[in-house]
Amino acid sequence: MADMISWVLLSAGSFFLVVGAIGLIRMPDVFTRMHAVSVSETLGAGLILLGLLVQAGATLIGFKLVCLFALIYFTGPVASHAIARAALADGLKPILAGPEIDARTGRKKPSVKGVKAIDGADDTSGGRG
């Protein structure tokens, strides 16, 4: 039973780490990349260490795993915060999703001003003829 619980925790932790790695590749700017990686890294590493703790039991190795979990749990968010502050101080601005920016790619959407809507109203008039 302990082996099954351990494997479930190890698999879930590995899944979160893979999702974080995909987020690192797919996100458009440093702030969203950092958010994706820091959240998934803390959760993924925590689940993996918990799975290893189930395997190790109440031994010296288990105590070391708990200490390692505490280290990752407290230093991961602090490091992410420090990186975000350094990026802001360096002049990087976060990409904010809005009507003119595509949230998936982080690029400006093509302008549609002057294009007639389906009902024939001008897009820039706010829907009034």
Concise overview:
Helices cover 64% and strands 0% of the residues. The protein has helices at residues 2-26, 30-56, 60-89.
Describe this structure in words.
This protein is mostly helical and 129 residues long. It folds into 2 domains: 2-93, no CATH class; 96-129, no CATH class. The chain has helices spanning 2-26, 30-56, 60-89. The protein is elongated and about 55 Å long. The relative contact order is 0.12. Residues 119-123 have low confidence and may be disordered.
Number of strands: 0
Number of helices: 3
Mean of the pLDDT scores? 79
Helix content: 55-70%
| Order of SSEs | HHH
The radius of gyration computed from the alpha-carbon positions, rounded to a whole number of angstroms, is: 23 Å
Number of domains: 2
Structural class by sheet pairing and helices: mainly alpha
**Overall 3D geometry?**
elongated
Q: Which stretches are poorly predicted, pLDDT < 50 over at least 5 residues? A: 119-123
For the largest beta-sheet, the strand count, sense and barrel status come to:
none
Strand content: under 5%
Q: N- to C-terminal separation?
A: 69 Å
Keywords for this structure?
3 helices; elongated; 0% strand; mainly alpha; 129 residues
